Amino acid sequence: MLSQRSFALETLVNGRPYALEVGANELLLDVLRNRLGLTATKLSCGIEICGACTVLLDGRPVSACCTLAWEARGRHVETAEGLAAAGRLHPLQRAFVDHFALQCGYCTPGMLMALRALLDEEPQPTEQQIRESLKGNICRCTGYQAIIKATLAAAETMSSAGGRV
Amino acid sequence: MIPSLSIHTPRTLAEAVEMLDGWGPDAALYAGGTELVVLLKYGLAVYEHLIDLKSLPELQSIEVEDGNASIGAVATYQDLLRHSGLRRQWGELSRMIKQQGNPRVWAAGTLGGNLSFAEPHSDPATLLISWKAELECAGAAGVRRVPVEDFIHGPLQTDLGPSEVITRIILVRQGVRSGTGFQRLSMLERPTANAAVSLGTDGNGRVQRATAVVGAVGPSATRVTDAEEIMVDTTVNELAERAEHIAVVVSESVEPLEDGHGSADYKRHLAGELTRRALLEALAKLGNSGS
Known about the structure:
The complex is a heterodimer.
Chain A: E1 3-4, E2 6-13, E3 16-23, H1 28-35, E4 54-57, E5 60-63, E6 76-78, H2 91-98, H3 108-121, H4 127-133, H5 145-160
Chain B: E1 6-8, H1 13-23, E2 27-30, H2 36-41, E3 49-52, E4 62-65, E5 68-72, H3 77-82, H4 84-89, H5 91-99, H6 103-108, H7 111-117, H8 124-130, E6 134-139, E7 142-147, H9 148-151, E8 152-154, E9 157-158, E10 165-171, E11 178-185, E12 193-201, E13 207-215, E14 222-223, H10 225-231, H11 236-241, H12 243-253, H13 264-288
Parallel strand pairs in B: 1-3, 2-3
Antiparallel strand pairs in B: 4-5, 5-10, 6-7, 6-10, 8-9, 11-12, 12-13, 13-14
Helix pairs in contact in B: 10-12, 12-13
């Protein structure tokens, strides 16, 4: 039985193993940003509504601002920093650039992770499915149309590349 | 910054109950944390100990057999959405879940957490009460069953004892000739109003049982018995014609609270209209079930 105020967090973040002493009261967002220097994931509303802090926990999208770091034990955390590989943008990122799906960029890391989760589950989503998966991600700049177009384009790219890029 | 606290992983349900019993108000049950973590962050609740129920697999399983369902209180909304038996036989549950929250809430949130928190602006209780769902609760005194309708006493107040844990949500099959409608309106993050109507008929299109529940507008989701009395012992065609009248009866029966979601008058109107739509939806589903 584990009962502790602090614990040894062993976790994988973007494929890289970490072991650090973490307080039971620490939030995943703070560990990512302040302890690991992974600042792509943003703090915005702080009450898990806006989606700017979306990260994937074993493939599931969660609000890092309201998730205890405790939940990352033995799990894989994925953030926007992990999308690009070997210096090449992920197709979602490429499509966001090509389709002007970002302006201020603040919601973007969260959007990308929510969409990554969608495309993992549904490689060829309909527009309806994209809208549904972005239900909890707020963007004040773009009006969402470009984000949806970018997602459809990325899905197309990824499927013609054999599903995995 | 959440104040320092300890997190505990009970190996058994009995251990979880013991912990609750020992620490009393200094301990909170913790599963998805979608309400709890927000409370902790902003100092609206203070706990020394969190008891992590996710270490107990018996609280996460979902069983559907002969149309009856037993849902683990700590199964996530995502688990419920992915369960093919639940989707097939209790389809409105999936529809209700997808209208509330967002994919991140579905990934972490649980029915057990939602019901034990008893926030009035909420959807699950309304639908569950229309099905006369029951909760299984385990505590120091043993295991008991309580209807969801009797479980929620008021805003953030439930029947749960100080050392009790909701373990399962029990759905009893509604019958071959049954139909359920669920409607909600939400402008803010939580619903402003919702309504659920569940009907069962005999082989001749005569309504044998009816539940009509309105939620989110008042202190807790409540059955509107005045409306139910009108619904029972009519034919489905008569009932469709009475839908407008039933909406009026509901709007006059409910006792809404004024708050940031709207005035009492507006909520009365919503209660009536959403019930009317839920009724028509239930009738349409009856038609499809071959009555």
